[in-house]
Amino acid sequence: GAVVSQHPSWVICKSGTSVKIECRSLDFQATTMFWYRQFPKQSLMLMATSNEGSKATYEQGVEKDKFLINHASLTLSTLTVTSAHPEDSSFYICSALRGAGALTDTQYFGPGTRLTVL
Amino acid sequence: SQKIEQNSEALNIQEGKTATLTCNYTNYSPAYLQWYRQDPGRGPVFLLLIRENEKEKRKERLKVTFDTTLKQSLFHITASQPADSATYLCALEGSYNTDKLIFGTGTRLQVFP
Predict the structure, then answer these.
(1) Opening angle at CA B22, ends B18 and B28, nearest 5
(2) B42 and A111 in contact by Cβ < 8 A?
(3) pLDDT tens digit string along B70-97?
């Protein structure tokens, strides 16, 4: 099956520090990965689309300088929350697109990372 | 504005019954619609995809319908089991001809013995 991992699974940090979250596709290559954020009892909100070897595409309202995305290889994308503040506390989930480029290729989701900023 | 609505109230049903969840959308013309399962503190797990030209799709105990006129999808779990208890999310193609997904808020299903 297609497995996507995230690391760390949870992190607690002080306000003003930066946190890096890794997303890996373990048994397939993913040209495209997505980053989502989910607040309690709310839906997943797409933050950005990460493409290997190119700049990420951010959704409206998402600060690209605050949420740095690097997709350096076909199996790894990282999200860095810079100068984190308590309002950035959330559940961050990545997904990796597996397929040959068809519009209905399946997204496989990671287990999520719980970020708590004190 | 574009909107995807799922019943925010939890659905409680007895084991063995059929659970039916609803997903309504407005101001979208998606080429496909997907259903996911999400357990607490975990990422979503893909269940089914149905295309705009398909009326119905089945997978084991799951059935999805897609009515592009009503702008609605129904998700059925037959012979439900306590292990089916989870939050179920529908997701639409976010932008024309892209892989971006826009998710509904999900419906919490609780199956009791």
Answers:
(1) 150
(2) yes
(3) 999 999 999 999 999 999 999 997 766 5
